[in-house]
Write a structure and sequence with these properties.
Number of helices: 17
Helix content: 40-55%
Largest sheet: 9 strands, mixed
Number of strands: 11
Strand content: 5-15%
Number of domains: 2
Radius of gyration: 27 Å
CATH superfamily of the largest domain: Periplasmic binding protein-like II
């Protein structure tokens, strides 16, 4: 009798334990509702982020994510929000204002986060003072676009992976027809691209403007290889005449050179990956266009910027913010290339952008210099370099004279 009772109570205990574990989720207190904000770039489609929020809510129903566009917001207003996207060039200002929190403790405790999956350099540009301040979400890269219709019209082979400066120049000359306002190349005269373009040529040729791009201490603007690269740069305008010279009516068209791209005036032009097809211009390109990595010389080099996901130091909900930005870092970015190698090499990415774009982007990212924001501390040198590039484009002085003057003005 005693044995039977013991067996009966044993079965009851087992049943109670089964009920306990099967219903354990009911015994864990439901987290209190939390609301956080996320600032997204104004040129992106909010519908994409709304989809992400819906998917995120299925995982964390107690967290409400409010989407806010950057449109109309100042830098300080953006930095006050719980989470937001910014490039590596905005990190110094964010740190100076103590506007963002370090992510080290979250990263160290999150065993599911594989840092090795991010492209080399993408994490490093958000690392300063030995601490990580953002998770990379997307990479933008300078690429070469070309008008397939013009190449077909002149019977010229399209640019290919692995092409060189010589290949580039041969093609630019072959499709060049200045008498009809058609040029082989849309050399940049204004804005950031007017700096990036000659800078990329310098590094492709083996030159350098700093002794070390990641930890700069000296300026080397007058390096002989820099001068050679800028001689090639100037030759596109004044010797080979494959790019419009100052005074050409095309330069007065606004915006230059993008209006000329729409009108089929340029066979090739350098632009960012994110601008593919004119998607961020408000009007798609009405031409049959192609894309390849930039041509190489001594080195295969391009420049890239990284968008990172930050958590505001003012947030009252850092844990929930971490869950959100980690989730966003696993989603396919709107215009940019994924910062995670597994995503960039996925069929999903190729389906999204097309095989031609995906192959070009995957190749170019391996050649990209992801510029360290510490370079912004050399303001005098960078300003002198910019003036030198402008003088070279205007044929005011020789490349050697321009870069020698810039070196003296840099203070090094």
């Amino acid at each position: 009798m005693f044995v039977k009772s013991l067996k009966r109570y044993g079965r009851i205990a087992i049943c109670l334990l089964a009920l306990l574990f099967s219903g354990c989720s009911q015994l864990v207190p439901t987290p209190d509702p939390v609301s956080i904000t996320f600032v997204y770039p104004e040129y992106n489609d909010v519908a994409l982020y709304e989809t992400w929020v819906q998917q995120f809510n299925e995982l964390y129903p107690y967290i409400t994510v409010e989407l806010v566009s950057t449109e109309g917001l100042t830098f300080d207003q953006i930095a006050e929000k719980n989470t937001f996207t910014a490039s590596q060039f905005e990190l110094p200002q964010l740190q100076a204002q103590d506007a963002v929190m370090s992510l080290d403790s979250f990263i160290e405790q999150d065993e599911a986060l594989n840092l090795d999956d991010f492209y080399p350099g993408a994490l490093e540009v958000f690392t300063n003072e030995g601490r990580r301040w953002a998770i990379p979400s997307g990479i933008d890269i300078m690429m070469m676009y070309y008008n397939k219709d013009l190449f077909d019209q002149y019977g010229v082979a399209y640019p290919q992976l692995g092409w060189t400066w010589g290949d580039f120049l041969d093609r630019a000359i072959a499709v060049n027809n200045p008498s009809n306002d058609v040029f082989g190349y849309a050399l940049q005269y204004e804005g950031d691209f007017a700096i990036y373009e000659p800078l990329i040529l310098i590094y492709q040729h083996g030159g350098r403007i700093f002794d070390d791009l990641q930890a700069p201490t000296q300026v080397t603007l007058d390096d002989p290889l820099n001068i050679e690269a800028m001689e090639f740069y100037a030759s596109l305008i004044y010797d080979h005449r494959v790019a419009p010279a100052p005074g050409n009516p095309l330069l007065r068209q606004r915006p230059y050179p993008w209006r000329g791209v729409y009108e089929g005036r340029f066979a090739m032009w350098m632009l960012t990956l994110a601008d593919q097809g004119g998607g961020r211009w408000g009007r798609g390109w009405d031409i049959n266009w192609g894309i390849v990595p930039l041509p190489r010389d001594q080195n295969a080099v391009t420049m890239g910027t990284v968008d990172g996901l930050f958590i505001s130091s003012q947030t009252a909900h850092p844990e929930e913010c971490w869950l959100w930005i980690k989730f966003v870092s696993q989603q396919m970015p709107y215009f940019l290339m994924p910062a995670r190698r597994s995503m960039a090499e996925s069929n999903e990415y190729e389906t999204k952008v097309g095989a031609e774009v995906a192959i070009a982007a995957r190749t170019a990212v391996e050649e990209a210099i992801l510029v360290n924001p510490e370079l912004l501390g050399f303001e005098t040198a960078l300003a002198a370099m910019q003036q030198a590039f402008q003088a070279i484009r205007g044929a005011e002085v020789t490349p050697a004279e321009a870069l020698d003057a810039a070196q003296r003005q840099s203070g090094f």
